Amino acid sequence: MRLSSLFTILGTFIAAAAISLVSAYFSVGMIETASKADVLNELDREGLTWAEVDTNGLQVFLIGTAPDEATRFQALSTAGRVVDAARVIDQMLIEEPEDFAPPHFSAEILRNDAGISVIGLIPDSTDRDDLMRQFREIAGSAGVSDLLDVADYPSPEGWDAALRFAVGALRDLPRSQISVDAERVSIKAMTDSGESKKRLETALARRKPETLRLALDLTAPRPVITPFTLRFVIEDGTPRFDSCSADSEEGRDRILRAATRAGLEGKATCTLGLGVPSRHWPDAAELAIGKVRELGGGSVTFTNADVALIALEGTDQGLFDRVVGELEAALPEVFVLHATLPQPAEQKDEGTPEFIATLSPEGAVQMRGRLSSEIARQTVDSFARARFGSGKVYMAARVTDDLPGDWQVRTLAGIEALSQLVNGAVTVTPDQVIVVGNTGNTEASADIARLLTGKLGEDAKIDIDVEYMKKFDASLGIPTPEECEAQIVEIIGDRKITFEPSSATLDGSAKDILDELADLLKKCGDIPIEIGGHTDSQGRETMNEELSRERAQSVLDALRGRLVPVASYTVKGYGEAEPIADNSTEDGREANRRIEFKLLRPEPTEDQETTTETVEDTSDATGATDSAPAEGTGDE
To answer: What is the second-level CATH architecture of the domain 106-219?
Structure first.
């Protein structure tokens, strides 16, 4: 009885334990499934689909490869919001990072009187030792401060070209700051003068690699203008400045506005500089320009504080007296007015005496008219030869004794003014000096006005009609026609402009040479060039002449297609008429098949021919002899 009761009690406990175990098993399974599903759902809502979930009892395992550490932490936080964070077991991996992006390579270069400093980050492929050697060479006795860091990454595209350009620019800029990266070079610098500034801007723009962006900020100190000059003229109803100077931008604007009110049209320039005789310069200039307009014409010339007002011949005396009186009363104290109303000149039997000097585009100078004595003629001749070269001057002036006492001073001043031009003429009469011509200097009119008023006085009557032409501006680096011809020869060298056999069609090998020629000829501008075609002696003469002309035309068409200005170019077919080698040999025939570029020079004038006969060493002045043509050979 007792044993039976014991087994019953034990059986009851065993059954209860079994039931508990089964219940616990199923409960844990339900918890695992629910936890896994809930965590997966929450991860999906957060966009963390890369993460997988596994469970073991109450533990929740996060599995997968996270893109980065921040995303891994986000997955842990998301799972911790669903289940107790203590139950979350992190078994995630971090994706291996790709190669780091290369750093931004750049350099800052500073150059001044103390030397050169350079700071920045450059690629390891840059030859640092060679770079420092170049800096030391540029700095000379001054020091070089090297604050560069190096990174072991390849050079970005354009870096080497940008750095070479920056170093080249540094050579020309002793006071500069240059910033360099692979795509852009920024230059801030101080130049010695306005002329130097313009020249450097042009040179740097031309040397810049095509793919490189260039930011230029060049400044130049204001020049000291002496004498400080302004000359405003209304002639034949047309106003103009022969010279204009101002000490400030505000003063310049006031002066130009006054000229506009007086009828000046188009763009006018006024040089900013130091040396103004009074801070009231713009006031005086405005007043005087307005009075010239009231007179209906004439000129006003400021030379420092001296003011010369010259009315037109025939101006009403009453109007002249009123305008002069008002101007004298209104001018600031420092300025002194000299007013002139010209009277009709008395004509003598021989007419008004004059001296004329002309300067040809080839540099030949011819002088004719009247001089006061043989000594004066020798002085003027010597002065002109010193200015233009002894082999380029022809003297044809005669000596008379009825000239004004200042005639020699006037003629010498006229020749000095002529030397400011590329070509032109100066005419000297007893009451005025007239200068006309072309120049490559934007300040030539102002320089000539200052020169003549300084030599002849502020009340001298001068007439300046000088035209600025870009092709003569040396600061722009535009080659002369003669330099262009020489550079054509250099470009062609021993290469050939070739054609398909017995055809005027250029073959593919001619492309490079024509590209180089086109780049040069675009800079040369509108110059007269003959493109001549030549053949060997094989075949009929008429056929050879026609083929040579067609080949020359093909070259012209190819240059036109490369946007070369060819309006002044001509073509000519010489055929076999002008061989340069023996046609009986293959090498000779090959040499005779060619294209020639020849600069066409003007025929000598009658005066120039007289010059050649009269003066032994003036052959260079005539421009009659062509230099050797530039050649490019072509296959027959």
So the answer is: 3-Layer(aba) Sandwich (3.40)
